[in-house]
Specification:
- The chain folds into 2 domains: 117 residues, Aspartate Aminotransferase, domain 1; 219 residues, Aspartate Aminotransferase, domain 2 (3-Layer(aba) Sandwich), CATH 3.40.640.
- The longest helix has 22 residues.
- Helix 2 packs across helix 9.
- Helix content is 41%, strand content 14%.
- The structure holds pyridoxal-5'-phosphate (PLP).
- The site of pyridoxal-5'-phosphate has 11 residues, from helix 4.
C-alpha cells in the first residue's frame, strides 16, 4: 500500500471524531439506496407504522444480532430508548434508587462519570469514590447500585477494575466502549450506550438489563413513562414512536460488524490501532500521550504537542489534509483521536504520516 497515494487522495476524509463518528462506507451507501427505495406498499420503512410487520422484523433482527455479537445472556432484556446517554443518567436514579437507606455509589473516573453523579444527586443522596483508588468493598456490596463509566471519552481514560461484588446491581455507561471490549455480564446488572459512536446515527440509547433486577425495582412515581424501564420493557421499547431511521442504521451497522468478524474483529482491531498510535506517540519528541499507560483508553487517544498554539496549529493542519475531529474537548484542550470500529491500522498509518509531516514543517519554521 502506498501511504502517500492514500494521503493525496482528495476523497479520503479521515474522520477521527469522538461522536457522532464515521459510519462504515457500506452503511452510507445502504442509507443512500434505502432513501431511494420503496416497499411494495409504495412507502419506505421509515414512512410506515412502527407496529407494521416490516418494522417488527427489523426490530427482531437488531435484537438477534446484538445478542449474538455482544454475547448477551438470555436473562437480560434489551431496550432501545431515546434521550441519549445523558437522559439515562436521570433515568437510572429514577428507576433504581430505593429507600436511601443504602446509598447508590458513583465511581468517578473522569468527566462523564462526574456528570452522571451530578445528575443523580438531583434525585437523592449518593456516595462517590474516585478511581483508581481504594474502594470500601462493604459499602459497594451494600449499595443500592454502583455506577461507573469504563471508558471516559473526554479524558481518554479506561478503567474497568471493579472488584467482584456480592450483587450484580452494577451499571456501566458503555457509550464509548460498546464494541471495543468484551462485556463482563456475570458482574453487571445494566449497561447503557447511546448510538452515535458504535451503532450509527444518534437517536437510540441501548439499555441492557438483568430481567430479575428489573422485576424487583420500583421506579419513582415521577419517572416519565418513556424513561420507565419496566414500562418500556413491557411495550418492547415501543411505548412511543421510535427513531426509526436510527434503528435501521443501527441494524446495518451491526450487520456490517458481523460481516467483518463480530466482536472479536472489533476488539482486535481497536487494540491494534491503539497500539500503533501509542507506540508512535511514546517514541516521539514532539507529540506526547497525556494519560498514564495503565489507564489509557484504546478508543479515545488524548495527546498534545509543545503548547496550546502548536496543538491548535496541528488540528488546523490536519483538517486541511482531510483529517477531522482531532481537536481535544474544550474542557481538556490538547488533541484527541477517536478510533471506533471504522478506523483500521491502515488509516492509523496514514494518520501517523500526517502527524510526522506536521512536525517536520513545524520544526522548519
Ligand atoms: C461516556 C459517555 N457518556 C455519555 C455521553 C453523552 O451521550 P449523549 O450525548 O448521547 O447523551 C457521552 C457522549 O459523548 C459519552 O462519551
Amino acid at each position: 500500500m502506498n501511504l502517500l497515494n492514500l494521503m493525496d487522495d482528495q476523497d479520503l476524509i479521515l474522520n477521527l471524531s469522538p461522536g457522532p463518528s464515521a459510519l462504515p462506507h457500506d452503511v452510507v451507501k445502504q442509507l443512500r439506496d434505502f432513501l431511494n427505495s420503496r416497499l411494495e406498499t409504495g412507502s419506505s420503512l421509515i414512512e410506515i407504522s412502527h407496529r407494521s410487520s416490516e418494522f417488527k422484523a427489523a426490530h427482531t433482527r437488531i435484537k438477534d444480532l446484538l445478542r449474538r455479537l455482544l454475547l448477551i445472556p438470555d436473562d437480560y432484556t434489551m431496550l432501545f430508548l431515546q434521550g441519549g446517554a445523558r437522559a439515562h443518567t436521570s433515568a437510572i436514579p429514577m428507576n433504581f434508587m430505593t429507600t436511601q437507606a443504602k446509598l447508590p455509589v458513583y465511581l468517578n473516573s473522569g468527566v462523564w462519570s462526574a456528570l452522571a453523579a451530578q445528575e443523580a444527586k438531583r434525585y437523592g443522596d449518593i456516595e462517590t469514590y474516585s478511581v483508581p483508588g481504594v474502594l470500601p468493598i462493604e459499602r459497594l456490596n451494600d449499595a443500592d447500585y454502583c455506577h461507573y463509566v469504563n471508558n471516559e471519552t473526554i479524558d481518554g481514560i479506561y478503567w474497568d477494575k471493579l472488584p467482584k461484588l456480592s450483587h450484580r446491581r452494577v451499571i456501566c455507561d458503555m457509550t464509548s466502549s460498546l464494541l471495543s471490549c468484551s462485556i463482563p455480564w456475570s458482574r453487571l446488572g445494566c449497561i447503557y450506550a447511546s448510538s452515535q459512536k458504535y451503532l450509527g446515527l444518534p437517536g437510540v440509547t441501548l439499555v441492557i438489563l438483568d430481567r430479575k433486577w428489573l422485576a424487583r425495582i420500583t421506579p419513582m412515581p415521577q419517572t416519565p413513562s418513556t424513561l420507565n424501564y419496566q414500562q418500556q420493557d413491557q411495550s418492547d421499547s415501543l411505548f412511543n414512536t421510535p427513531t426509526n431511521i436510527s434503528w435501521l442504521t443501527a441494524l446495518w451497522v451491526l450487520e456490517w460488524i458481523e460481516s467483518k468478524g463480530g466482536l472479536t474483529y472489533c476488539v482486535n482491531n481497536a487494540t491494534h490501532c491503539a497500539q500503533l498510535l501509542y507506540t508512535f506517540l511514546d517514541q516521539s519528541q514532539f507529540y506526547q500521550a497525556t494519560v498514564e499507560s495503565h489507564l489509557r483508553s484504546k478508543v479515545n487517544i488524548v495527546f498534545k504537542t509543545r503548547n496550546v498554539q502548536s496543538d491548535q496549529d496541528c488540528a488546523d493542519y490536519l483538517a486541511q489534509k482531510g483529517v477531522i475531529g482531532v481537536k481535544g474537548h474544550s474542557l481538556k484542550g490538547g488533541l484527541r483521536a477517536s478510533l471506533y470500529s471504522t478506523i483500521t491500522p491502515e488509516l492509523i498509518h496514514v494518520f501517523i504520516e500526517h502527524l510526522k509531516a506536521f512536525e517536520e514543517q513545524y520544526d522548519a519554521i
